[in-house]
Amino acid sequence: MKTCPRCNESSDDQFDSCWKCSGPLPAGNGLPAPSHSASPVRPRKRAAFKIFRGVFITWEGLCSEAAEFASTVGPQNLITISHSEDQGDGVITVWFWTDAV
Ligand SMILES: [Zn+2]
Which terminus of the chain faces fewer neighbouring Cβ atoms within 10 Å, N or C? Predict the structure, then answer.
């Protein structure tokens, strides 16, 4: 049995709302939860990255490309920006959070 928090009337566990005042009843009572509440829908984030390579571009151009992209990602989703250089070949990696599919 569930007890209505609003009017203290008792309802069977199968009901989601009070038969008397139609107020919402608390979910579960130490009993197995009904199947419809088993999987809460929650937006999840996953890490992703975008690589900018500078074979035909200067560091300046490469950085502004990465900066442009980082701006579209937004500060709340930006993890970090790393860069390295290998024999004049510049690489900038922008790490960011994206919505999981
Ligand atoms: Zn009630």
Answer: C
- Protein residues with C-beta less than 5 angstroms from the ion ligand 1: 4, 6-7, 9, 18, 20-21, 23
Whether 33 and 49 map to the same domain: the answer is no
Number of domains in the chain: 2
Residues 32 and 10 in one domain: yes
Range of the domain at 11: 1-38
DSSP β-bridge partners for residue 48: 96
Query: How many whole angstroms from 80 Cα to the centroid of ligand 1?
Result: 52
Which structure tokens are listed for 16? Answer: 């989601």
pTM of model > 0.85: no
**Same domain as 58, residue 17:** no
For residue range 35-82, what is the model confidence (pLDDT) as tens digits? 555 556 666 889 999 999 876 678 888 899 999 999 999 999 999 999
